[in-house]
Amino acid sequence: MSRDLPESGRREFLKTFSLMAGGTALLSTFPSMAKLYASSVNKSPSQPVVRLGVIGTGSRGQYLMQMLQNVPDTEIVAVCDDFKPHLDQAVALTGGKASPYSDYRRLLERKDVEGVIIAVPLHLHAAIAIDAMKAGKHVFSEKSMAKTTDECASMLKVHYQTGKILQIGHQRVFDIRFVRGVQWIRDGHIGPVTQIRAWWHRNNDWRREVIPPSTERRTNWRLYREYSCGLMTELASHHLQVANWVLDAHPVSVTGTGSINYWKDGREVFDNVAVIYTYPGGVQFIYDSVISNKKYGLEVQVMGPLGTVEMEAGKYFLENPPPAPGIVQLINSIEKDLFEVVPVGGPSWVPENPSEDKGTYFINKILYSDGSDMQLVAFAEAVRQNKIVPGLAEQGYLAGVATLLGDEATLTGKTIYWPSELEVEAIKKTAEI
Description:
single chain, alpha/beta, Rossmann fold, 15 helices, 15 strands, 38% helix, disordered N terminus
C-alpha cells in the first residue's frame, strides 16, 4: 500500500493517477475532482494544513490513520475511542501529538477540527456523522453508509442542510483499474451492458480474538444483527457502488436468499448470501458471497455483446478478438487439434466452452494503491478548499440503500422495490422544508 512508499514514490503515484484519471470516468462523473488532484500534486508552500479528528481507532481506524500520515499538509489533531487500548495505540501512531477523547462529542467541540474520519461499527455511523455535520465538521465515514435506510436518508438530508462534505469510504471510485474500466465501458467497447456478475468469497470465520471475554459483542460486532448486516454491508456494498457507477442508476428491485450453513457458532448474520438486483432496462446485477471457500476470491464482471470487463483484475476481454498472425494461428491449431472435421454422425453443435482469451490489462504499471489512500487525499483536499465534490455523497447513499434493500430481501425472501421516498430528489425536497 502507499503507506509503505517513500515521499518521492507517493508523489510520483499521485502524478500518474492525475494524468491517467484526466478525462476519464472519475472526472466525467466528478468534474471538480481534477482540481483536487492538481492541488494534491502541485501543493503550494503556503497551503494551509487540514486538521482532522479520527473517531473509532480500532483496526480500520488505525489503518486509515497510517494512510493519512502520507497525505500532504494534513494533521491528525484528535482521536476518539471508548476502548482505551485502541485509544492509546492511536495516540502512539501520531507520536503523542493527537489529543485523546473517550466521548466523540467532546472532540466535536474543538474549533480547530475541520473534518472527522469515522471508523466505528456500522450501527453508530449515522448518529456520529449527523452530529459532526451539525457541529460544522466535514465527514468521511467508512462504508456502508448506515444500518437502516432511514439513517441513510437522514445523513444525506443533513449533508444538504449543512453544506458539509459527506464522503463514504468506497475506495473503488478512486482505484485506477475501476476508473479506466468504467470509462472503457462508457466508450462503448463492450456494447450496451447486459449483465453484471460479482462475488466476494473468503474462507475464515470472520472472528477476531476477544480479550477480555466480556468484549465479545463489541469486538465481533460484524457477526451480530444489533450492529451489522453482515456480508451485505461489509462486502457487497463495495460492488453495489461499482454497479451503480457503471450503470449510472440505482436498482429498481432486488430478490435474494441467505443462511448460516457452515459457521454455526452463535453468529446472527448469514455466512452466505445470493442476491439479484434488477436495474432500469432489465439489466441484472447478480451477486453472491460466502466465507467458507476462497477459490474464486472477488471480482466484478461487466458484460455486453462485444466483450467483458473484469474490474478487480483490471482487464478486458473481447467476444471476437482479432485472429493471431497466420503462422501463429496455424501452430495454435495444430497444438490444440482444432482443425475442422466434417462430422459423419453425432451432434451438430459444439460445446460453448469458456473463452481462452487471457484478457488485456488496462494498466501496465505496478499499482501502489487500490484507491484507499486516494480517497483520503480527495477528502483532505475537499476539506482544504471547503468544497463538496458533486455526486460523491450520492454515490455513497445509493450504494448504502441498495445494500440494505438487498439485506431485507435475504431476510424476508420477498422481492423488495426501491421506495419512492428514498429517491435522491425526495431527500433534497425534505431538506428544503
